[in-house]
Specification:
single chain, alpha+beta, 2 domains, five-stranded mixed sheet, 2 helices, 14 strands, binds zinc ion
């Protein structure tokens, strides 16, 4: 398909995409483009190895700023899953979860933290050391995406939970998953979520009732 690219009419939209690009590794760049398909406006990531079409469609009109940030967040999630296989960009404060892209800048996704870092400046920002995680501990988790990864010696394992909650085996009691939690999980061999191995069964060990004597 022939893709016709041109700059959006609004310089502010292009500026946001270019700032986002400055925080990406040099081997990947993100473009905003338009063609004649049903959803003409979309974000696409290109790397040395792949031509990646990630990022939500924006509709027939140039995306609004709010819509663009939603698309950038979607693109970020996909880049982590399919291209990087690690948290990007890691929170400078905590060293673990990926930051959340927003009109206020990059934000720590933890609810009680309000720190922000300007988009496009992360290369110059020191990042806290990544917390050490033992096998079977949640390495990081983004509640707004509903997914995170568990540390495992054979490679991190992707898990998905809507709203950060998990139903128990009966489907109604909900568990909360937090970073650093030790969890029970079963890897589904041969199934991958992008670059991560995959599990669809995760229960925090601490939430289990004590064993009966
Ligand atoms: Zn953080």
């Amino acid at each position: 398909m022939l893709v016709v690219r041109f700059r959006p009419v609004t310089p502010g939209i292009q500026d946001i995409v270019e700032s986002f690009n400055r925080d990406l590794p040099d081997t990947i760049s993100v473009i905003i483009e338009q063609d004649d398909s049903v959803w003409p406006w979309r974000l696409r990531a290109e790397s040395l190895e792949h031509d990646l079409c990630f990022g939500g469609p924006a509709g027939k009109q140039e995306p609004t700023e709010d819509r663009l940030f939603w698309m950038l967040g979607d693109l970020q999630s996909n880049l982590i899953e399919h291209e990087f296989g690690y948290a990007w960009p890691r929170c400078p404060e905590h060293g673990s979860h990926p930051l959340k892209v927003s009109s206020r800048g990059w934000m720590c996704p933890m609810q009680d933290i309000s720190r922000t870092w300007p988009i496009g400046t992360l290369c110059a920002t020191g990042v806290a050391d990544e917390p050490k995680r033992a096998p079977g501990e949640v390495r990081w988790f983004r509640a707004d995406w509903g997914w995170g990864v568990i540390a495992d010696p054979k490679g991190d394992i992707f898990f998905f939970t809507p709203e950060g909650q998990l139903p128990d085996e009966k489907g109604h009691r909900l568990y909360e998953v937090k970073e650093g939690h030790r969890v029970l999980y079963e890897v589904i061999e041969g199934r991958w979520q992008g670059r991560f191995r995959y599990t669809d069964f995760v229960v925090p060990v601490d939430s289990l009732p004590p064993a009966q004597p």
